[in-house]
Amino acid sequence: EAQVTQNPRYLITVTGKKLTVTCSQNMNHEYMSWYRQDPGLGLRQIYYSMNVEVTDKGDVPEGYKVSRKEKRNFPLILESPSPNQTSLYFCASSARPNGGYTFGSGTRLTVV
Amino acid sequence: GDSVTQMEGPVTLSEEAFLTINCTYTATGYPSLFWYVQYPGEGLQLLLKATKADDKGSNKGFEATYRKETTSFHLEKGSVQVSDSAVYFCALRGQNFVFGPGTRLSVLP
To answer: I need a labelling partner for A25 at 20 to 30 A (CA). Which of A49, A80, B43, B46 fits?
Structure first.
């Protein structure tokens, strides 16, 4: 089944403790992206990647890192999480320049 | 830069009512246009899309037509059901994806 898989689905962590949210797609998509969704703010793009080793900042990249060493994986790294990074995170991938996104199921992160 | 504007709602309708959610966009070139739906507790799912002017996307009784002259992509459904209650996002893809703020739809029995 074609899908984008994020892990974990839920995570509660403490301020400053490094964490990684994994994202993997099995559709051989070139384009991958991370979003956060917050009430009243809609979807905001954090980082995106056009292909392996090609990443770029989205609208809200501060406090996040990404890497794209393989086509299928696009992990989101929070080196020193803070409470304002409490949010619902979505990974998404897309095949063609005009293709639509396939979204993962989301990761709900709480930083205390 | 590119942008998407949509009515923010919430929109509350009775079952079998007609639905319109307005979406307008600003973009250079010829973006592809999308509607996504997010059901409670789930991720976003592609509902329909259109890739060029005058294309009509349709799925599950929903329709939207790519109108370049009015830069619009309004979502319509002739008869909504309670199961259509969700948040609907209009989006475009030019150089990058741009999403509207989402419209929450509640359908009452």
So the answer is: A80
